[in-house]
Amino acid sequence: MRISGIIVIALVWMLAACAEPPNPQGVVELPTLADLPTLTPTSTLPPSATFTATALPTETLTPTITPSVTVSVTPSATITDTPSPTPTMTPSPTPRQSALSLLADIADRVTVLPPELRPVAPPPLSPFDVQSGIPVGTPLPSTCPQLPPGGFGTLFFGTPSLAAQIGCPSGSVTTVNSALQTFEHGSMIWLSGPIYVLYSDSRAQRFDDTFTEGIDPVSGGETPPAGLVEPVRGFGKVWRNNPTVRAGLGWGTAPEAGGSATMQRFERGWMIDLTQRGDIIVLTENPDGLTGTWQSYAGSF
Which of 77, 189, 227, 245 has the most beta carbons within 10 angstroms of its beta carbon? Predict the structure, then answer.
């Protein structure tokens, strides 16, 4: 820009010189070099260029897989690998219990107890068939077409002599209301009808319950010894009207207690489970149906 200005000034100056009138002597005076203005060159930098940065493509590196060298080892033919024998476990023989020892073991579980005691039922044999109550896989006795259910079946199977005493089941299992009273030498039970007298010496008697409410006296008005009680109602009527019963049983040791009884009829007797006792009573009847024997077995229906 400064060089252009200097050139313009020089041109103006030259034009001015030409415009002056001519020298009268006809001599043209040329400007000397000394009259010329001294031009001082100015170093002017060229305009700076503006560079635009262009992003170069990024080089994608491809991983180089270096193959591994697999060394194959050829086993020597002179070495033989002899396999070690695997020990075999020899099972120990399991002793099997004979039928006689099994019956003896079951017989040990059965205990005849006085009626005053409430025995604790032994742990049941397992597993049991749901219907018959006997161990699974046990063949039924050939003398009976079927066995009684539940705890009755367990007792019947575990005590082979019962089949000879009371025979096979002849009726289904029933549940009735019951009453029980203990005496000095036995007990009396009421089974919604009949009354059974169970003596301590295993004898049993059966009586019909003829007590009528409002007609028969509730008690005989007797005074028992200290700590004992007089039986009342149906038990009292049988006790007072039968001298053998009174002499055989003695006085009551506690008032009668109500409950329920699960029972099943057999050909020659009964199996009875009283909730007031906690055992199974087996009644064996004589042909007259009025006398017989009884036994108490640990267990329940």
Answer: 189
Given a cut of 60, is residue 235 above it in pLDDT? yes
Distance separating alpha carbons of residues 280 and 133, to the nearest angstrom: 15
Helix (H) or strand (E) holding 240: helix 233-241
Query: 203 and 189 in contact (C-beta within 8 Å)?
Result: no
Determine the pLDDT at residue 146: 84
Say if CB 112 and CB 296 are below 8 A apart: yes
The residues, any chain, with a CB within 8 Å of residue 5's CB and separated by 6 or more, are: none
The DSSP result for 73-120, as a single string, is ----TT----PPPPP---PPPPPPPPHHHHHHHHHHH-----TT--PP
Comparing CA positions, the residue from 167, 170, 169, 173 lying closest to residue 150 is 173
Pair 154, 247: CB distance under 8 Å:
no
Tokens for 274? 């009283």
- Distances in Å between the Cα of 51 and the Cα atoms of 111, 147, 273 are 118, 114, 115
Please give the model's pTM, rounded to 2 decimal places: 0.55
Sequence length of the chain is: 301
pLDDT digits (tens, 9 = 90+) for 93-123: 555 556 666 666 666 666 555 555 554 444 4
Structure tokens at 43: 């170093």
DSSP secondary structure code for residue 268 in this structure? T
Q: Which of 48, 42, 46 is nearest to 2 (CA)?
A: 42
Mean pLDDT of 230-256: 97
Which pair of tokens denotes residue 208?
Answer: 């019909």
Region at 106 (left for phi over 0; alpha for psi -120 to 50; beta for the rest): alpha
